[in-house]
Design brief:
Layout lengths: L2 H27 L1 H5 L2 H21 L2 H19 L7 H22 L5 H26 L10 H6 L6 H26 L5 H19 L4 H15 L5 H20 L8 H4 L16 H6 L14 H12 L3 E2 L2 E2 L19 H4 L10 H17 L3
Antiparallel strand pairs: 1-2
Length: about 375
């Protein structure tokens, strides 16, 4: 992967992981209350799962294992909301979060000793999570056995029953190869949007196959595959050999109870995340139009930008007879004349039909009108 692209993706991971850790930490302050809120417990579980998936994608092994241990702990608590938590359990979970924070800090501030520090943090966390598994087993009244070891948990093979093991084997020996054949058939067809959509639908089906058996590392890989397919910069000729090989190897790993790894070749096919626009949601209209309605100078001479803006407003009927319309003159009953681009005076009526965004749009229009009024035009 291009070093600049790798650096940018790492930056997004750090930002998202920080948000996820804040979510987890805030939920642990009143853990008993969190247990009683299924939606919040799902959010905490997904936060740990997202950190694990991102770390796996980037090859950050220590963070992957630590976050996976936390994820397993949250899963057991999520599945047993009747559990009575105590201070020891809360402290152990917080120690796990602190370990992730320490590892994340090492990624933010790289040094030659990073690998050694990460390995030490990982080694130090093993006794912690062994104690955490035992504590959860003691607190969960309906749990017949302790939380499985990280190796088993990594594959989702949580002491499966004979029937469940047979079902898993049947799905991954017959259904998964069938989906692979469907993928290969689509890759041989012309590269069209419909073909890519069908391939992504197959990815959703493969994801569900892993989800029903709690094979989260399989699910992580399939999500990366789906993103690679959605990236229009990747041709079918490029995608086909890598994706077929990766999914086939992952299928074999599941059947052999081996760890699933995402290769650098597959990671390189992922699209580069687009940065979010830095616009203040409370004053979005002002931000967008601020450079154009900056007003006249102290001598009363209009700036060229302002003249152009006024002409544009006249064409859209945002100005009528040389006067800017304001919020007081808006008439939602009006409709746009034939051939005219919809202007704010007609936008305000969009909430009256079936447009579900009408109220938000109307609010933005009023902000624009207020901004124009402030400029004294």
């Amino acid at each position: 992967m291009d070093p600049q692209k790798q650096k940018q993706i790492l930056g997004y991971f750090i930002e998202e992981a920080t948000d996820h850790l804040n979510t987890i930490e805030s939920s642990l302050v009143n853990l008993q209350d969190t247990l009683g809120d299924p939606e919040m417990m799902n959010e905490v579980f997904r936060a740990a799962h997202s950190i694990k998936g991102g770390a796996a994608m980037l090859g950050i092994t220590a963070m992957q294992h630590v976050s996976h241990n936390l994820e397993d702990s949250f899963k057991f608590l999520k599945d047993h909301p009747e559990s009575k938590v105590d201070q020891e359990l809360q402290s152990l979970l917080l120690y796990g979060v602190d370990t992730l924070k320490e590892l994340l800090q090492q990624i933010e501030n790289p040094s030659e000793s990073n690998d050694q520090i990460a390995q030490e943090a990982l080694a130090n966390s093993e006794p912690l999570f062994a104690q955490l598994r035992s504590r959860i087993a003691a607190l969960v009244p309906t749990l017949n056995s302790v939380i499985p070891s990280p190796v088993k948990a990594f594959q989702g093979s949580l002491d499966r029953s004979t029937e469940e093991s047979k079902a898993l084997a049947m799905v991954f020996r017959s259904d998964v190869p069938a989906k692979l054949r469907d993928m290969l058939r689509l890759f041989k067809q012309p590269d069209r949007p419909t073909s890519r959509q069908q391939l992504q639908t197959i990815c959703d089906q493969l994801y569900q196959m892993g989800e029903q058996f709690d094979l989260w590392s399989w699910c992580d890989l399939i999500q990366v595959v789906k993103q690679a397919i959605a990236n229009s910069h990747n041709s079918f000729r490029t995608l086909a050999p890598i994706i077929i090989r990766e999914v086939k190897q992952a299928q074999e790993s599941v059947l052999e109870l081996q760890a699933i790894a995402i290769s650098p070749q597959l990671k390189a096919l992922m699209p580069l995340p687009e940065p979010e626009a830095n616009i203040d949601s409370d004053d979005e209209i002002s931000h967008i139009f601020g450079t154009h309605i900056s007003g006249a100078d102290t001598l009363g001479i209009l700036e060229p930008q302002l003249v152009n803006w006024q002409k544009f407003g006249d064409r859209l009927q945002w100005r009528i007879n040389g006067t800017w319309i304001n919020s007081g003159s808006l008439n939602s009953s009006n409709s746009a004349p034939a051939g005219h681009f919809p202007a704010p005076i007609w936008f305000t009526g969009w909430d009256q039909p079936q447009d579900q965004n009408g109220s938000e749009l109307q609010d933005q229009v009023h902000k624009l009108m207020a901004k124009i009024d402030q400029c004294g035009m």
